[in-house]
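FAQ: What does a multi-protein file look like?

Like this. Sequence, then tokens, then the next protein.
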Amino acid sequence: MPRFTALLIWSVFVLFHYPPSLSLRYVSALKNDSTTVIIRPPRAGSNRHTMFLPLFPSPPNSSRISGDVASRRHLQKSDAPRPNARMALHDDLLLNGYYTTRLWIGSPPQRFALIVDTGSTVTYVPCATCEQCGKHQDPKFDPESSTSYKPVECNIDCTCDNNKEQCIYERQYAEMSSSSGVLGEDIISFGNQSDLQPQRAVFGCENRETGDLYSQHADGIMGLGRGDLSIVDQLVDGGVISDSFSLCYGGMDVGGGAMVLGGISPPEDMVYTHSDPVRSPYYNIELKELHVAGKRLPLNPSVFDGKHGTVLDSGTTYAYLPEAAFEAFKHAILKELEGVHMIKGPDPSYNDICFSGAGSDVSQLSKTFPSVDMVFGKGQKLSLSPENYLFRHSRVTGAYCLGIFQNGKDPTTLLGGIIVRNTFVMYDREHEKIGFWKTNCSDIWEKLHIAENAPPQASPPSDGISPTAEIPSLPPTSLPQYIPQGETEIGSITFSMSVSLNQTKVKSQISELSWLISQELHVNSSQVHILDFTSNGSNNYVTKWSITPPKPANSMSKATALSIISRISEGGVRLPDSYGNYQLSDWNIQPPTKRSWWEKNYLVAVLVSILALAIGLSTFGTWWLFRFRQQSGLQYKPVDSVVPEQELQPL
């Protein structure tokens, strides 16, 4: 669930994440130590309850930004407009455990799908020389193919490789996954719909992956945290963008979203809270109160200020409250609910708090579940809708579970992505504040009018290197409308694939292909069905496939369908070389199959029949028993016991 230079100084950090995706990070700079330990929650669907946070504080000399860098940023503060990078977000936080964006590295550009993480300070992708890297969405980065690539040479401020030639990095995670490699510098492109021209930046080129990093579909991590190697810090230090960035996560069943690197003109009704960079190395906020259905929870404001305070983390899936706050929140929610009943959660390993009977329409959830308000330091209030604290039950239609959990015994409050769904969040680092604006993230560009007021483009990067001859197009400014508006449940997804098959092994290769497709689309093998295949001569075949809901469901959610379609349409399916130059095309969605009354209600009919049979047998048994007892109760006198007739008396 979900990890995680105008710059020649290599500061190394020891990060402690605990946990579907990323969790809280704690940074401790240790000079000449390249190991980074990250304790985090597993991805969505795994342990999402207990959060273990940093074990020790930063040393006195562990400032993440050296004095000269901080001074340089202070001098750079200006009201002069700077360009920004508009970028689309993909995937779904609850379904995939993360959101990704697209970056292009090198000349010519090589595309990568990177997990957006405000808790990480390094951006890294798999290197072409990596023999221990997993199979991800895009090909590995090949430094030899980039004319602008430069290795970060060994120096006294970094950990060097064995040959003392190049700086290296390492990241280790508590769920037994890790990433390590070398540091390189190259041109990073943000797409031609961005006002920000390509810039040189330092990034990690992986030589080894283990665990979730090895098996995840995304290529790597895009670090947005506070730190000299963060992509945001590098762009700010170069004077290219203002010291700000923004994220907007799509709502329930929608996924996707948007990201802006650089400043924007904020909406007038944006709600702000102070974010103190000295308070903790994370993006923290001043949460003072929680209200449920307009009623303030009986909590001391200090409950939200324990340890690292209240931390906002884009990489964490759910939200985690200190024990006292969680108990008060849970009881307040339960007290307000009517017309629903509690059911078991989708995973028997955890005691999820789930409710059935609310219906499948997300827009109607507010009629069943109460509103929740977060009150910040100066009394400003951010209202949360039910989609900001609920997630869909994966096994019961129309059922939902609380997406807010107790943070073990840790007093830190951690707010993950579920809290900010359909919320534009602006991380204004220059003014040390974070802004929230409730909106539909699917059409955020039109609402912000970024394109109309775009400032002039920045000058090309220095060092005499041309940015790039060709910048690939970024996805459309608004989310692709893969699924028509109003559709909430999808019956199946069909698509065609042209592929090379050995004529003598067609059946066995079709079976293998079915399994490979299920792995690439992250579905069960029983959901993948071959509809047809025809030969176009030689070994070239056109195959048609169908992806159906997992049994016994009759439909899949819009979010699930969007995730599958995005992988099909954006090159997310990777097959072995033995299948040749395969190509996926002509994808389509099908409505749920219309089932007859008997198919929809056969279980009820069977139960009614059994009940009627039981009642009939019971009635017959009762009648038979009654008759038996009645007959057995009659008394017969023997023949000789009959009394002789008495003589007739004379008249």
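And here is the next protein:
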Amino acid sequence: MLKPSKNEKKIISEEPLLEVTPIGDPSSGISAQIEKLVFHKRYHEALDFFELLECEGECQLDSSTYDALITACIGLRSIRGVKRVHNHMVSSGLELDQYLWNRVLSMHVKCRMMLDARVVFDDMPERNSVSWNTMIGGLVDLGDFVEAFRLFFVMWEENSAADSRIFATMIRACSGLEVISLGQQLHCCALKMGERDNRFISCALIDMYSKCGSIEDAQLVFNKMPEKTTVGWNTIIAGYALHGYSEEALCMYYEMRDAGVKMDHFTFSIIIRVCTRLASLEHAKQAHAGLVRHGFGLDIVANTALVDFYIKWGRIEDARNVFERMPQKNVISWNALIGGYGNHGRGIEAVELFERMVREGMMPNHVTFLAVLSACRYSGLSDCGWEIFESMSREFKVKPRAMHYACMIELLGREGLLDEAFALIRDAPFRPTINMWAALLTACRVHKNFELGKFAAEKLYGMEPEKLSNYVMLLNIYNSSGKQDEAAAVVQTLKRKGLRIKPACTWIEIKKQPHAFLSGDKCHVQTKEIYQKVDELMLEVSKHGYVMGRKTLLPDVDEPEQRLPHYHSEKLAISFGLISTSSSTSLQLVQSHRICDDCHNAIKLIAMITKREIVVRDASRFHRFKNGTCSCGDYW
């Protein structure tokens, strides 16, 4: 008898049901041990026993033991285990029945070994619906939609009696390809086969029509479902959210609630993301309460969405509280909070959180590095940023991408090192991207380097000839450097192309109700009081050094708005917030465009004289105004 291994001793101590049997009786002893271990989900130990068996040489296993080993390989996603088990099956000469053939195929597919899976599939003496579903489903799951359709057409020619599951799978493939005509043909086939009331096909169709841009057809399919399941509700809500119909998504959520349908963590994750887009704190709080009430208070996906919401609404402490209460965190959870601290100008805390993440054994990915490097650039942490950038490939084997280079270019730009920033673009190991040139252009605008700024703007102009902000930036540079002829040529180009930016809009939520303002807006019922407050504020801030900014277009501010600087949408929203809330209430605003220089300077002083904290989320980042300063450090 061989001496029991450490694993065997562990089995004896942990699980009295599993007794170590001499290896001399492999047909019953080892097989029974493997099957028991798999039954108790102790997959590593099961494969260890199998390795002992392999060392013995000619040992025969029966179908039930191979079935158990396949379960272990799938559970561990062990490619090495798949190869060992499959090779042993082949070398043993075992005759596989249809069930075991399908299990072997499933093992390869679920371990993402699609080339080997195709060999197994082609070698199968017979294929049933399970075989086709497994192979085609694996291709769809991996995004190989074209090959999935090729195989589907082969199956259709061999045996047109496709089941509902394969139709649902192929409808998913149509979603991936975003080809609605194929989805419509499959829809017709499913109806002809009497699958009108099949909930799996209905949910797949709702998803397909949504992703292919026809939310109306998705709603029709949903309306015809005889039993509207949780998945059905989630899918139609997600469809509305996907197309930006946030209010409609929220209405569907309340219909779902009123219908008494059981909600799951995906329901709350979707709604929290909808609330993020709507900037609706009250609805998000209700979703948060529902999340806890329905028993999903510890769910990673939903809580990560909640962290993201609180961050984007400017409530960083609430986001941190949710994060710290999570019993398990994945890399997305860490990335959300690190990025949140960075966006709010709290770079030191973002870096500390990154270091804690590494200490706790969570491996950072390229998104993590983007979050922490962005935090460094927003807060001007140059030395720290370069140290992290250089550690990416050296310590974490993550190759820096263009977005990481853009962060470093902005870090150099903040310090006024424009030549070094340009050199980093020039020497990058790939073709410079739009974000890299945009980072240099921002630095040139702030530091008034018109020649290099013109060069960067022209690069952007060539890469995105239809993007308005590139023309506006170039126009600013020409105006600032006194080149009126060149500026006039840019204006003519804008008119010829018919490019004009939409008016900026600012939202603020007061007493659970959202209020929207445009520049010079006089539609609000309290317009008179709002304008009086604006005039009062402008008079007060002028006593503290405020001077109306000179006429300079920013990427997101059109010329008519420049003629109304006192009554820009941000100032109107802030004035309304001040007259509608107590003196201790901070104000939270969302701006559709990029905040202009004049408003930025004015809001710093408004925050100081009113002793309020004012948080503005604009198109570029968060601005937290307090005591006369902004978290962006006047660089945005």
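Q: Is there any per-entry metadata?
A: Some entries carry free-text notes. For the entry above: The chain is about 65% helix and 5% strand.
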